Amino acid sequence: MVQPGSHQVLLSWWRTHAIAQVEHQAVNERVHDDAGWSPRYLFNTAMSAGIAILGLLLSSPAVVIGAMLISPLMGPIIGLGFALATADAHQIKRATIALIGGSIFAVLFCALLVLMSPLQNVTTEIAARTRPNLFDLIVALFSALAGSYATIRGRAGTIVGVAIATALMPPLAVIGFGLATWNGTVFFGSLLLFVTNFVTIALTAAVMARIYGFGPTLSPHQTVFQSIAIIGTLAERYNAGGRACVRQELAIVHKAADLRPALCRIVDGYYRMFMREPVMRDIWQATQADRTLQKLDDDDVEFLAGLLLDAFKRVEPRRDAATLVAVARLIMTLIAAAVRHAITLKPKESDRMIVLFKRMLPENPAALTDAR
């Protein structure tokens, strides 16, 4: 069998030790809850915006940090990133409406407070948010990575630090200040900072979600036939890899004594492949539940039996052809059944079962045609 490359081993390790540890449904539900428009979201946006603009007008970093802590804007942005990763059009629309609506509300609310305030000077805190640079982008990137990881792995406390680092609400408050004072430099500078932060977080969240196994799922509009087609395509892909390995092992069979070692290597190869790729087990279970997909399985066994039959004919050309066909089919069916049974057992039991099965293989399978 062809040995897996280092990238395949790494991918397998990642699927087993990272992706498999994530409760995808729970994360999706949590992200969905935080990404939409609600009275609580509107209230927190108003409170955060009010505290932010007052802190900026007073040039008080401590007050500005307080506004960051209660800002709810991270929810829709992270939700938008996850929606992009899962190609969920409804969630994209929902998160976008919440983000745009909340942002506009925050800007207008801050502008109103500035108009009513006797303090309308550009303070150092306001000026600091009108000149975005590369370091602001890097901060947004690192914060997005931390926020996405915290969301996926359930580290809720980390979101507080991320909210402070990305500072989503203060730029909106500064936009409101620029609008109220008709200061274009302040308005467009802070707008650029907010857009930079928001786009960086959303795209980074989408990438992180894909890395951790979040992807397009079946929607209510997808039919059972589409599901079968998807599983069938995956099954064909893995079957093609298995056929190539079997063909390679049987190609080096030149005498009867080579048959049993080749079959043992095929058993080991298939067993490793199933253990290395957990998705193969899921695909196999799905193929057993549908007649159309069972046909794919039957065709694969028939193809592999044909490869084994060619090897039989090379080493035992005088044997009865019809019986060789039956023996080849039987052996490949038994190999498939043994491996698939083994992967349902605990690791030590499955290893022992594979060893026992290989011992059962005859020294010269082609000689089974002698049986009466």
Main features:
2 domains, Glycerol uptake facilitator protein, mainly alpha, 17 helices, Tetracycline Repressor, domain 2, rod-shaped, single chain
Beta fraction: under 5%
Return the CATH architecture of the largest domain. Up-down Bundle
CATH class of the largest domain: Mainly Alpha
Order of helices and strands: HHHHHHHHHHHHHHHHH
Q: How many helices in DSSP terms?
A: 17
β-strand number: 0
Taking pLDDT < 50 over at least 5 consecutive residues as the criterion, the unreliable ranges are 218-223
Account of the protein in words:
This protein is mainly alpha-helical and 372 residues long. It has two domains: 6-211, Up-down Bundle (Glycerol uptake facilitator protein); 224-370, Tetracycline Repressor, domain 2 (Orthogonal Bundle). It is 77% helix and 0% strand.
